[in-house]
Amino acid sequence: MGLVCRLLEERGIATVYVATGRDLTMLVKPPRALFVNHPMGNNFGPAGDVEMQADILRTALALIYSAEQGGDLVDYPSDWPETFRFAPGASA
Amino acid sequence: MESIKYVDALNDYYGAMGNPPYRWTINETAPLHRLDKPLSECVVSLLTSGGVSQCSMPAFDPDARNDHRLDAIDRGVDAADFQIHDSYYDHRDADRDINCILPLERLREMADSGEIGKVADRLWSGFMGRIYNRTKVLEETGPAFADALQEDEVDLLVAVPS
Questions:
Q1: Interface of B with A in 98-157 (CB under 8 A)
Q2: What DSSP character marks residue B8?
Q3: Mind telling me how many Å the CA of A54 is from chain B's nearest CA?
């Protein structure tokens, strides 16, 4: 998906990538990325947490204007309340 | 907590399944298109790669590889009208609240309050993980997606990988 963002940017469409994989994002280097240290699948927070969902979305959209160069990655300040891990097969 | 090392975890996981080594894309620079209008005038769309489809549509293959399917989702869709099929992440929260990965209700609220110009006519689901034939993305599916976004006069896309 990071490749798609790069292609869109070259076509004049601004993008922001809201990722839960910091190392993956650093490799692909989408034009603008907000890293959220949550489990994959909780990019915008827990189910029902409207306030956090809105705040992460607003923070991501603000990056459209604040990013200084292509490939900028910003860390969203959030502490997920539990330890988590890569969880393939947790649900299908 | 420290962020998960997904590259190592995925290499181990794919390898244990007998898949060939994944050749990760490594870029040193990135393009950047600067918008010359305020957010309050922008048309905004969303893209999820999390195996999300509307209930009336076929499910995504949860174990897909090289799946270039891309679904358009009407911007007025009911937030409960989704199913998720993807074996590679825990989507139990997103099953209950699609806004965890596709914050369409939050985006509609921002349009209602005037923070963004409008929600694009179409939101999107596709480009699931494990795409090995990236040339097809760069030469076919990616450009076709750009055409569709431009048709909808999209200024800005929020892309949500999972």
A1: 99-101, 103, 106-107, 109-110, 115-116, 127, 134, 137-138, 142-143, 145-146, 149-150, 154-157
A2: H
A3: 6
| B113 token code pair | 């309050």
ipTM entry: 0.96
User: What are the C-alpha distances in Å from B43 to residues A90, B3, B157?
Assistant: 35, 32, 9
Domain ranges for chain B: 38-160
- Whether the CA torsion A84, A90, B4, B9 is positive or negative: it is positive
- In the predicted model, is pLDDT for residue A92 greater than 80? no
pLDDT tens digits, B96-153: 999 999 999 999 999 999 999 999 999 999 998 777 778 899 999 999 999 999 999 9
Cβ distance A52 to A46 under 8 Å? yes
Q: Which long-range contacts (CB under 8 A, 24 or more apart) does A77-83 make?
A: A78/A36, A78/A37, A78/A38, A78/A45, A78/A52, A79/A37, A79/B1, A80/A37, A80/A38, A80/A39, A80/A42, A80/B1, A83/B1
